[in-house]
Amino acid sequence: RAAARQLLDFEAGLLEMCYAGGRAAAIEEAHGMLRLIEIVQEAYQPPLLAALQRLHEAARGAAAARHHATRDSLRTRHPEVLGLPEKLIADGAVPCSTVLEASWLYAAAVDECRKLPSRPTAAAKLGCLVEATKKLAAATAGRTSELSADDLVPLTAMLLVAAALPSLDFEAYVLAELLADALATGPEAYCVCTMQVAAGFLAEVVVV
C-alpha cells in the first residue's frame, strides 16, 4: 500500500505539471478527467503494471487460482446462488437456470469486461469497467424500473463469473489500489466499489 501511495503521489505531481503546462484543462474539458489521467499514465505505467502483476502472481497466485476455480464452478449453478432476482434473469417469461445462461442476457457487458487484462494502465482498466457497468445497467431496461445497489452487486458478480478472467484478482487489486485521487469520489469510484464487493463475495462463497 505504501508503494501504491507513492505511485499515486508521483502521478499527482505529473498531473500538476500538465496543468501548469496549459494543456490539461483543455483535455479534461473535451474528454473528461478519466481520459486525462489515462494519458498521463500511458507515459509511465504499462511496464510498472507488468512488473506488478508478476509480483502479485508470486505473492497471491495460489489464492487467485482458488478464486478462479470457484468462479468457474459457479457458471453452471442456479443464479440464485449469486442473489440474482428472477426479474433480472428471465428470458421472456422463462427464468434462466444457470449463471452462464443468465449472462447471455448481458453479453455486451461480459464482452467489455473481458477486455480488462488487455488494458495497459489503471485508468484504461477503469474506463473498461465503467463501460461494462453501463452496458450491464442498460441491459436491465424493461426488467426493472430502477437498478439498486442490491441488484447491481449480484449482476456484477454474474459478470465476473461469466467473463472468466484468470487475472481477476490482479485487475481488482489495480483498480482499488491505483484509483487516482481525482476519481475517488465520482461514478468511477462507485463502479470500483461495486466490483470489490462482488469480487469479495465470490472469493468467500461456498460452492456445495
Q: What attributes characterize this protein structure?
A:
two-stranded antiparallel sheet, 2 strands, 208 residues, mainly alpha
Short overview:
By secondary structure, this protein is an all-alpha fold. It is built from ten helices and two strands; from the N terminus they run ααααββαααααα.
Question: What are the SSEs and their pairings?
Answer:
Layout: H1 2-21, H2 24-31, H3 33-42, H4 45-74, E1 90-91, E2 94-95, H5 99-103, H6 107-113, H7 122-138, H8 149-163, H9 168-177, H10 187-204
Antiparallel strand pairs: 1-2
Describe the structure.
- By secondary structure, the protein is mainly alpha-helical.
- The protein has ten helices and two strands; from the N terminus they run H-H-H-H-E-E-H-H-H-H-H-H.
- It has a two-stranded antiparallel ribbon.
- A hairpin with a 2-residue loop joins strand 1 (90-91) and strand 2 (94-95).
- Helix 3 (33-42) packs antiparallel against helix 7 (122-138), helix 4 crosses helix 9 (168-177) and helix 9 (168-177) runs antiparallel to helix 10.
- The chain is globular.
- The model has no long low-confidence stretch (mean pLDDT 89).
Give a count of the beta strands, DSSP E runs of length 2 or more.
Answer: 2
Q: What is the approximate shape?
A: globular
Largest sheet, in brief, is: 2 strands, antiparallel
Distance between the termini: 35 Å
- Stretches with pLDDT under 50, minimum 5 residues: none
Order of helices and strands: HHHHEEHHHHHH
Radius of gyration: 18 Å
Please, how many helices? 10
Sequence of strands across the biggest β-sheet: 1-2
Strand residue percentage: under 5%
Helix content: 55-70%
